[in-house]
Specification:
It comes from Urochloa decumbens. 68% of the residues lie in helices and 1% in strands. The protein is built from 31 helices and 2 strands.
């Protein structure tokens, strides 16, 4: 058993007095004069054979695989001490890193004098990343420049001088990993422009470096056009056609239905080329692929289809956070407050430090129209993660719901600054200016949103609203028709206001029959609005069809009995109908 005093001085051992006769006996081990001294035993053999070393390396790898990091560190240390081989030193540094001994791993790598090798340098930079020493991390990675298109200039190439090249085809390029780490460091230092460029460099260096594309897409660092250009510039291997198709599905969420459906079908075909028929069915039903499709349904306004798909996916994997975010958005649109409550409780319990959890709580309070509490939890989400786009947008929308336009604009401006590739903050700022009847400024913001994402139908609808309010009715008709052209082939209730708006604009142009057809199309949806009934009634009134006008004025007043316009126009229509009937009788 070990005798440990933790640095304190030892006390002399307590002994009991020996009997006198025992003291007089000679010691059996006492050496006589002239007698030769005994040789000490030889030290144990510490050298290891190559077979023993190889066995220990295998045990280290197995210990890492079983997350037994202390065992891995202990054994790797002995192997590295015995050989001094750079590969064994790297193995020890990896074990230290995985065991969260970042300072010790960094010290080992610095003392090894092997930082010419990119892998050693990258692992040292990863240690500095975990220690949040971002400037030192960038210094460790070396000087390099990158242009706007993600092309690396003046890079210190270094080399993988201590490692075999045989496995490179089965690895992500180390230079892609270094570019990605540079991007993370610049993002942490709030230099989002350089972060974007290094992420682009990482995905270009190796299309398999998915983290780089994930950061670009999830943090809205690129416009839709820039995403398409980046995707077309990637050089995929012959066997990576499925990956190209998946990336296309990931970024084309505002395209027309036939374009998106074609991309998903192409992904299904490509998946068959990398696996047998049975496993291709598994890839076809992969949760990441289906979550991407659910996000498309949400963007298209097909909230019920989105909800059903995400519900089934979360039954398979309740902790798939990207799918959870889409599920939250669909539940918000459908007003499923009970589901939001249960989901937010589970998220807060499982992930109390994630922004998504508190964003879910904010969504619940917004859904039940408690906007103060919603703002508080959206604010908590932004406090945990300042780069979480939905929380900033949710904060602005919650302020706007309470008619607090200045605070809403502040939140939207922050989101627009942080996420230059997201058109929603700019779009919502334009909507705020429409509320203020500042149509010129609103048009500028809608045009800016269009430059970021030209395929979102909602932008054209809002531009049409601006043109209508500025009495440019022909332009409004063109924009509302363009809105319908950009929607999916099967219109849903999300676009009912666009049909009504188009009817209003056509009525202003005295194209009454066309206006009636769009009003009637709007009334085929379950959400029958007062505006549709009132617009249809007034159009019939202008066509001197008083009976139909009276019928629809009554239907409008059934929805809102105190509507002044419909009440006055109903009275006028009744009087006109009576005068018309009287004239017919006289004739």
């Amino acid at each position: 058993m070990r005798d440990t005093n933790f640095g304190f001085p030892r006390e002399p051992p307590t002994t009991s007095p020996a009997p006198a006769e025992a003291a007089a006996e000679p010691s059996p081990k006492r050496r006589r004069v002239g007698e030769a001294a005994e040789e000490p035993p030889p030290p144990p053999e510490l050298e290891m054979g190559e077979e023993s070393l190889e066995r220990l390396r295998g045990v280290v790898r197995d210990s890492v695989g079983k997350h037994l990091y202390s065992s891995a560190i202990f054994l790797a240390d002995k192997v590295a001490a015995a050989t001094g081989d750079p590969a064994d030193v790297y193995m020890l540094a990896q074990a230290l890193f995985l065991g969260r001994h970042y300072r010790r791993a960094l010290h080992l790598l610095n003392n090894s004098r092997l930082l010419r090798d990119l892998r050693f340098r990258f692992l040292a930079a990863k240690c500095l990343e975990e220690l949040k020493e971002w400037h030192q991390c960038l210094l460790m990675l070396g000087d390099a420049k990158v242009d706007e298109h993600g092309k690396v200039l003046d890079q210190d190439d270094g080399s993988d001088i201590y490692f075999d090249k045989d496995s490179e085809n089965h690895e992500i390029n180390i230079k892609a990993a270094i570019c990605f780490l540079r991007g993370k460091a610049y993002e942490a230092l709030d230099n989002r422009d350089l972060a974007r460029q290094w992420y682009k460099a990482a995905i270009k260096a190796d299309p398999l470096c998915y983290e780089a594309l994930e950061c670009l897409v999830d943090n809205y660092m690129l416009t839709c056009e820039e995403e398409s250009e980046l995707l077309s510039s990637l050089q995929f291997g012959k066997e990576d056609g499925w990956l190209s198709s998946f990336y296309s599905c990931l970024i084309r969420k505002h395209e027309k239905e036939y374009v998106v459906e074609a991309k998903f079908k192409e992904l299904e075909r490509e998946s068959c080329s990398i696996s047998s028929s049975s496993s291709s069915e598994t890839l076809k039903n992969n949760i990441d692929v289906l979550a991407c499709k659910a996000e498309y349904y949400h963007q298209s306004g097909e909230y019920q289809k989105c909800w059903q798909l995400t519900s089934s996916l979360l039954e398979r994997d309740p902790f798939h956070l990207k799918c959870t975010l889409v599920h939250l958005a669909a539940a918000m649109e459908l007003g499923h407050s009970n589901d939001l409550y249960l989901l937010s409780c589970n998220l807060v319990k499982d992930y109390p430090q994630k922004a998504l959890s508190w964003f879910a709580v904010g969504c619940y309070y917004y859904c039940i129209k408690k906007y103060d509490q919603a703002r508080r939890y959206f604010g908590k989400a932004t406090g945990l993660d300042g780069t979480f786009p939905p929380a900033w947008i949710g904060t602005g929308i919650a302020y706007a719901a309470q008619e607090e336009g200045d605070q809403a604009m502040t939140a939207f401006r922050t989101a627009a600054r942080l996420f230059p590739g997201c058109h929603l903050p700019t779009l919502y700022m334009g909507m705020q200016y429409v509320r203020m009847h500042n149509f010129k400024l609103a048009e500028q913001f809608f045009t800016q949103a269009k430059s970021i994402c030209p395929s979102d139908p909602l932008i054209y609808n809002e531009l049409g609203v601006v043109a209508y309010n500025m009495k440019e009715y022909q332009k409004a008709v063109q924009l509302f028709e363009l809105t319908l052209d950009h929607t999916s082939s099967s219109l849903n209730e999300m676009w009912e206001p666009t049909l009504v708006n188009l009817g209003h604009a056509l009525r202003k142009l005295k194209q009454y029959q066309k206006a009636v057809s769009y009003y009637e199309k709007a009334l085929t949806f379950p959400t029958k609005s007062l505006s549709a009934f009132a617009g249809l009634a007034y159009t019939y009134h202008l066509m001197d069809d008083f009976e139909a006008a009276i019928n629809y004025y009554h239907k409008a007043l059934w929805l809102k009995p105190d509507d002044q316009f419909c009440t006055d126009m109903l009275t006028y229509a009744l009087e006109s109908s009576c005068h018309s009937t009287a004239r017919r009788r006289i004739v």
